[in-house]
Design brief:
Blueprint lengths: L9 E3 L8 H16 L7 E4 L1 H10 L2 H9 L8 H17 L4 H17 L7 E7 L15 E5 L2 H13 L4 H10 L8 E7 L3 E8 L10 E8 L3 H4 L6 E6 L5 E5 L5 E6 L4 E6 L2 H4 L6 H18 L3 E8 L9 E7 L15 H8 L5
Antiparallel strand pairs: 1-2, 2-5, 3-4, 3-5, 6-7, 6-12, 7-8, 8-9, 10-11, 12-13
Length: 357
């Protein structure tokens, strides 16, 4: 993208400053790092932490948020968290962007659209809060992502919604219970091209239950990956030998829900899976090998086990790579994730008859 890295509010994902965690948050910094390392990642940019801080300061939201949170402590009941969160998020929704910020955001979105040669390109608006993947604290699933957003007004609305997800009832409660300050975890936001997905899912460079390092585990379903990472669909499950990428096991699931692009509504939505797809195998051997190959390469790049979110793009041909949209480190084998996906090991064990470690 033709966005100067000196810009305090916008950083191109392909630019040298996009790996600065303090500016763009860990999620986007890792994606930028993967892109620079040669992996296929979406085109896009980060709306920086500075943009968030300037917005809340210039609009007076900073003072209003502090006042709302002043009376909240770990003795507060859930209804109090809900009420405070509702009021704070309503303030974000009703507060327009300052004129200069709106103009800069419009320029950045138009530049992205021109780079991919598509007017009003649908994008993913992804939160990337500083500190969300700390080893001793995980905010996985607490901040929000919006898929299939098209047009500058809708993108700007979703940026403010992503900012406001810092103050969901769940996130406020987690910070209070963990003794974390509310102003020490500002939010960057990624605006990334929405890769047209034929299928999507997650992959692990170690077995997520047993910790076996000689396996690559791939889970995927039709359409976009939100139904998979959100746990609302049982995906197909495959295990491959890490050394030779030989397929060891493939289980076809009864897939009841799919995430698809609603072109009339301008968003990715969930709907019932068509009957023809529900019991059909999602990934062939070449696609599985491509996903596993990228997952093993990401592990080698970082020097530790990882889980990744992948997209099998429409039009992909045999032998092509796949697109990575997120990567996270796994801690010691069998001990979980520093920034875990919304993945439930109990449900996993029940699904596959495995025993929890």
């Amino acid at each position: 993208m033709t966005v100067a890295d000196a810009d305090p509010w916008i950083v191109a994902l392909a630019g040298p400053c996009a790996q600065d965690v303090a500016r763009v948050g860990p999620k986007l910094a890792r994606l930028a790092d993967l892109g620079r390392a040669g992996f296929q990642v979406p085109t896009g940019y980060a709306v920086t932490v500075e943009a968030y801080r300037d917005f809340v300061r210039e609009t007076g939201l900073e003072r209003a948020i502090a006042a709302e949170l002043a009376g909240i402590d770990d003795d507060a009941d859930p209804e109090a968290f809900d009420a405070v969160a509702s009021r704070i998020r309503a303030r974000f929704a009703s507060q327009p962007l300052p004129a200069a910020m709106r103009a800069r955001f419009e320029q950045a979105y138009d530049a992205l659209c021109f780079e991919v040669r598509e007017v009003d390109k649908p994008v993913a608006v992804r939160s990337s809060a500083v500190g969300e993947d700390a080893a001793d604290h995980s905010f996985a699933g607490q901040y929000e992502t919006y898929l299939g957003v098209s047009g500058v007004d809708a993108v700007n609305d979703c940026i403010r919604l992503a900012w406001s997800s810092l103050f969901s009832a769940r996130a406020i409660g987690y910070r209070v219970r963990s003794g974390l300050g509310h102003d020490g975890m500002p939010m960057a936001v990624g605006v990334l091209e929405l890769v047209r997905a034929r299928a999507a899912g997650v992959a692990f460079s170690v077995h997520p239950l047993t910790g076996r390092r000689d396996r690559v585990v791939v889970e995927g379903s039709w359409g976009y990956g939100e139904a998979v990472v959100g746990g609302v669909v049982v995906p197909d499950h495959a295990e491959l030998d890490k050394d030779g990428l030989d397929l060891l096991e493939y289980r076809i699931a009864e897939k009841t829900v799919v995430s698809v692009m609603d072109y009339r509504g301008g968003a990715v939505v969930e709907r019932p899976m068509p009957a023809a797809f529900a019991r059909a195998r999602v990934l062939d051997d070449d696609e599985l090998a491509a996903i596993a190959r990228s997952t093993v390469a990401v592990e080698a790049h970082y020097g530790h086990p990882v889980d990744v979110e992948w997209v099998l793009q429409r039009g992909r041909r045999e032998g092509d790579t796949i697109v990575l949209v997120q990567a996270r480190p796994v801690t010691a084998a069998g001990q979980g994730f520093t920034d875990p996906p919304r993945w439930d090991p109990v449900r996993y064990a029940l699904r596959y008859g495995a025993r929890l470690p």
